[in-house]
Amino acid sequence: MRDNKPIELEAENYVCSRLAKMNLRYSKPNFDLDGGDIIVINQIDKDSYKSINIQVKGRDITSNNSNVKIHKSYVADNFVFFLYLRINEDLNDYLYCFFDKDISNWEIKGDNYYLNIPQKSIEENTFETFLFSKDKISKISDILSKQKEKHFAENTQWNLTLLENNITLWQTTKCLPDHNLTSWFLENTNPNYSLVSHNIFLTCLAIIHSDKLQTISAVDYMFIHFKNCDIKTDATISDIKVVETFSSNWFITYPKSKVDLLLLKYNGVTLNALRLVFGDNEEQVEGILIDNGDLTLTYNEK
Predict the structure, then answer these.
(1) DSSP-derived secondary structure for 258-272
(2) Following CA atoms 232, 162, 216, 44 in sequence, which dihedral angle do they give, to the nearest 10 degrees?
(3) The whole model's pTM is what?
(4) What number is the average pLDDT over the span 66-95?
């Protein structure tokens, strides 16, 4: 049996990059949510949002036919399916987009819709009608706008308390949450309700654990929550020593981002800190979260 996992990850990463160019916010759940590998979110106001589920499949058809299946229960008006095809030594990207009515025309086998993918489907333009295009972008935006508004869960405050407790734990023990807990926080924390310190801590964790979290760690959307902040401290910070540096290959809009684990002198006292450098070639924020609770944050245009 062929291992589709590597190309599945390649496909999800590519679709995320397309969504980012559409200025759509997305989330990568750490579990399958109604068939959605990616959840696209449109926040209406601070209390409500709309969302659609996107499923992504990648297939290598260099030497064989292939197929995909989708469970019937997933296919609804808020469901979009992306098919990413690859042929070895062909550097072009082949991305196709299917909506609920398209999928309902596929072959049915038991509880699933099946799509057969011939080896020569690219050469013969088998799925040309479904190529990802501006029309598909418009339709996705239209589907999103027509969804029923949802409201953020009442457990927001509980989630933030748990996050705050983990920051306190880091301040006390110098130990950071692992990638599993980080994934949970990223999926269950709304940055609009969080303190700046919460968002910096989460963004640092996303970068530190990016190798394991992959697309889940692509928190480019956090940038806007730092851009208008200017936080200074009256303390004297000196003797900054970089203990370890982490970067991420999963940030799309702001790829020039990294996290430094620091030892520094704060008014003469040695403390641990996290330094976040977040941005691209045009703009950047830099924040330092110190384990005594103090924080600095600056924004710069290059």
Answers:
(1) EEEEEEEEETTEEEE
(2) -80
(3) 0.54
(4) 92
